[in-house]
Amino acid sequence: MNFSRGLAALIFIAFFQNILVADEYLYKDEVIHNPKFTKDVNKLGSELYSKTGVSLRLVCIKEFKPFDNILEYEKNLIQEFKEPTILLTFSELDKKVDILVNDTSLYKYFDREQVLSPAASPFQALAIAVTSSSSFDNFIAHITNYGGTILPLIGLRTKKYEILGMYSAALYNGYSDISEQVAQSKGVTLKNAAGNTNKNFLFIIKIIFYGTILLAIIQYTRRVMYRRTHKDEL
């Protein structure tokens, strides 16, 4: 009888511990609430930590208030972690994504600027540089910063009922990108990483982006040709 009770207690403790760590890597989720997304993030995060000792935690919040900005929010939250931690944070209402570490040496394992780049490709970076640069240095900074795996997806126009799917795709894409870079830097392979999925997402982004540019060029050309052939009507 005592043995049975002891066994039951052990099973209960093991089950309870599993519940406690279930959301260890998707540390906060006030936005998506998708069981598959939660499972995929925690599975990849657990493998990354077991193989590299680096903890990558994803935080999805509605807004960073009462903090002044997302960085202040992250600085407050990251104090909770003792192990080497990379914090990927998304604030929905503030439309902000950021990455912070609790040990600056962790930045050498991944390219923060690339992950957070608003451009998925060199051509998209060029378009942003041409339209947004305020100086030559700013132009160079824009044109050399591309390969973003989060913002290009979040920036897509989508229907209201598809927004959560877009968020989960973008954030998992970025989470996997960071994970793979850290793993590669550490000389290990992650079997749960997105791999080709990242490439497929970015390929879709490029198709949409280039298609939009091509459509704009065609429309502009048609307008110019119409004006030239209908001068008398103007």
Main sheet properties: 4 strands, mixed
Low-confidence stretches: 7-22
**Helix-residue proportion:** 55-70%
Give the overall shape: elongated
* CATH third-level topology: Diaminopimelate Epimerase, Chain A, domain 1
Strand order of the largest sheet: 1-2-3-4
Number of strands: 4
Kindly give the count of domains: 1
The level-1 CATH class = Alpha Beta
Q: What is the CA–CA distance across the termini? A: 97 Å
User: What series of H and E elements makes up the topology?
Assistant: HEHEHEEHHHHHH
Class based on secondary structure composition and strand pairing = alpha/beta
Give the integer mean of the pLDDT values. 83
Strand residues, percent: 5-15%
What radius of gyration results from the CA coordinates?
23 Å
Architecture, CATH level 2?
Roll
Number of helices: 9
Description:
Helix 5 runs antiparallel to helix 6 (136-143). It is elongated, with a radius of gyration of 23 Å. The chain contains 9 helices and 4 strands. By secondary structure, it is of the alpha/beta class. Strand 1 (26-29), helix 2 and strand 2 (55-61) form a beta-alpha-beta unit. It has helices spanning 2-21, 35-52, 70-77, 112-115, 122-132, 136-143, 151-154, 163-186, 196-229; strands at residues 26-29, 55-61, 85-91, 96-101. The model is unreliable at 7-22 (pLDDT under 50).
